[in-house]
Amino acid sequence: MKGGVRALGVAESAAGDRRATVAGAVVRADRTFDDLVLDSWTVGGTDATRTVIDCWQRLDREDVRYLLVAGIAPAWFNLLDLHAIHEAVDRPVLSVSFETSEGLEPTLRDAFAGESADCDERLDIYERQPPREPVEINGETCFVRAVGCDPGTAREVVVAFTPEGGRPEPVRVARLAARAGDDFARRGRD
């Protein structure tokens, strides 16, 4: 992949009580940081998909070819709908996670016991998403869900944007920016 190819990585800081800071970082395949947007989404809410789309639109970067998100269930199961994001941004969307999992269905049922509408909505979104595919990078394994490209292309994208370690640079930089934004906001409240 050419060094000038750009991807937007979206990640959150550790979720706070009600809101989690979200960052979108545009990074080139040659590791050059190119742009940044900050936002937030609701812990336990249903606005994560809309927030990712808003970040994309606010950046207004036609040169970005891929969108990578950290995981699929940020901020206490504020599930990302990769299909809806792909439809809105018209680019391949890849969800990258870093831990093995048997799936979220049992956890969602436990977390939203007694709240059937909330549980059903989340299960519906979760069940529509593509399966996770393991990708070996630099001696580590990550798991990728892809909408808008085949698993082989998704693997190539993740490998190209991960020059070392196991986290693609756009997601790694976005997580750092979200943490810094969260820290700044917290210090401003003290």
UniProtKB/TrEMBL annotation:
<protein>
    <recommendedName>
        <fullName>UPF0215 protein DP107_17460</fullName>
    </recommendedName>
</protein>
<dbReference type="InterPro" id="IPR002802">
    <property type="entry name" value="Endo_dU"/>
</dbReference>
<dbReference type="Pfam" id="PF01949">
    <property type="entry name" value="Endo_dU"/>
</dbReference>
<comment type="similarity">
    <text>Belongs to the UPF0215 family.</text>
</comment>
